[in-house]
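Model it.
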Amino acid sequence: MKAAKHTLNFKALELQLTEESTAPHVIYLKEHSVREHTKDKPQGRTLLAVNIPPYVDEKGIKNAFRHAGPIESVQFLLKPSTAEVKPMKKFLPDPEKTTFKTAYIVFEKVAQLDKALKLSKLEPMNSENHTLKIGLKKTIDQYNNDVLQPKALKEKVETFMESYDEYVKKEETREKKFEEEDDEGWVTVTKRGKVQSFARTEKIENKIKAKEEKGRKRKELKNFYTFQIRESKMKHIVSLRQKFEEDKKKIAQIKQNRRFKPF
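Modeled.
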């Protein structure tokens, strides 16, 4: 068994699909230690793992760290972040980016994080109940999963719209509560305000920009400063010279095309 390497407070361990893997991948681990912890990354229970291959999923991470103890959650990000990540409900999921990522692994207890940091070897990510899909097989499965039957698509749309309408209703109820006066007569100002705004389309945005540009040009002072007057005179002289040269060329062209006709 190879000894674990340490690089800038990170511990290096080999991550492999199976016991027979001939080319394991090295990941780097350390405790997620920052001044202000968030709810999704609690202090003393969060492990930061970097250089995670793109094909790794949550179940694979849990299999790899199963000797450390139960894992509460696994959060994958493109790069380390101390901010709290709030899951957003989207009808069309973001396309999967085939790049190496960062994982925040939250254990159920503090002692389990200590066990994870003391591990000298990770278990294989594949198990009897779970097998990671890689290569061509993964690409085919992703393509097949993206193709939905009309009936299944309709059910998915209806379910999403019901959840979205419920979310909007809750937000409106919450903001109405904020707008009510408290015991001291204060009212909390929300982002909506009392005047309902309209949805800005691309056409409206272009009109607003054109109006702002017109107002800016109107306020702009022309030929007010000395250098502006000097520059305008120079530009006028240059334009006159260009016009003079063009007129000379036209006259020369007319003389060249003139023909002698005695009769």
